[in-house]
Amino acid sequence: MIDTSSITKNFNQIPLQTVKGNFKEIFCFNTEFEEENIDHSVVESFGEEWKKFASFEDKEIDKLGKMYFDIIDENIVNKNTYGIDIGCGTGRWTKYLLDKIGFMEAIDPSEAIYTADKLIAEKENVRFSRASTDNIPFEDETFDFGMSIGVLHHIPDTQKAMTNCVKKIKKGGYFYVYLYYNLEDRSAFFKFILSLVSLIRKVVSSLPSVLKKFVCDLIAIFIYMPVILLGRFSKFLGLKKFALSLPLSFYQNQSFFVVRNDALDRFGTSLEQRFSRSEITEMMQKAGLSEVVISPNEPYYHAVGKKIN
């Protein structure tokens, strides 16, 4: 057994209940408040999504992790680091970091937390909690490192949620975030496609669960894949620049499983916000971070900042 007693901290409140997962206990905290910064339909949608797309292979996680964490080095995450994954979903990003970090608290407000328990299985340096950004069950300035990947843009007040997350980070610690970008540097054609996608998303996300998943699979097969395959074929012909200029170029090196997952993520969620580089920098600074670094690489935009001393 790994001795993590010198790293981990106790909860700052008593769980409403403790549920036995497949491998670990899952601590459940209150996620409902009169003035809450959470959309419960979105939470339910993601719970459904992550139950459907729960079987990420280690090879897939490692491949994606290297892209998402290209700006994270051993000065930020190492074996002495106490971290928290806020909105962990299936737990794939927590799993990616577990061999690099001291201990990770994985929290999510949806039923995806049970999926995370299955995916991560018997790893010892992780604890699971069902909780929201409104009620992170730890004292302020507890963690050396925190992250929220693909979550805060699905919360009504992204700035407030980020500020709540950063409060839990120690002074001198780091907070990492991935937020959708607003295509600020792309052509009018790409922006038109985004506006069209947004209209379709409003319709698809309102469908009953089973029908929504079916429609999103059709979108992945008949809309995503033809464009992706065109890009792959263009690369085969040596037309790399053309391939990268196509929509959905990020998926040209991804599996069909990831494509289906992201189609459901994109079209199955009713609330989605997008930001520019300057807006993300400003939000991070307002939350109490300095030395903000936004990766120049896909996926856009992922960034890390240091908690101000």
Based on the model shown, name its key terms.
39% helix, 9-stranded mixed sheet, 9 strands, alpha/beta, 309 residues, single chain, 10 helices, Rossmann fold
Structure description:
With 309 residues, the chain is of the alpha/beta class. Helices cover 39% and strands 17% of the residues. The protein has helices at 40-52, 58-68, 92-97, 112-120, 158-167, 188-204, 209-236, 240-245, 256-267, 277-286; strands spanning 17-20, 25-28, 82-86, 103-107, 126-130, 143-149, 169-178, 289-294, 302-307. It has a 9-stranded mixed sheet, sandwiched between helices. A hairpin with a 7-residue loop joins strand 8 and strand 9 (302-307). Helix 7 (209-236) crosses helix 9 (256-267). The protein is globular, with a radius of gyration of 19 Å. The mean pLDDT is 92.
Biggest β-sheet: strands ordered side by side in the sheet:
1-2-5-4-3-6-7-9-8
CATH superfamily of the largest domain: Vaccinia Virus protein VP39
Given this structure, which CATH class of the largest domain is correct? Alpha Beta
How would you spell out the order of helices and strands?
EEHHEHEHEEHEHHHHHEE
Under CATH, the topology of the largest domain can be stated as Rossmann fold
The helix tally amounts to 10
Mean pLDDT, to the nearest integer, reads 92
The amount of helix comes to 25-40%
Give the overall shape, derived from the CA principal axes: globular
The profile of the biggest β sheet is: 9 strands, mixed
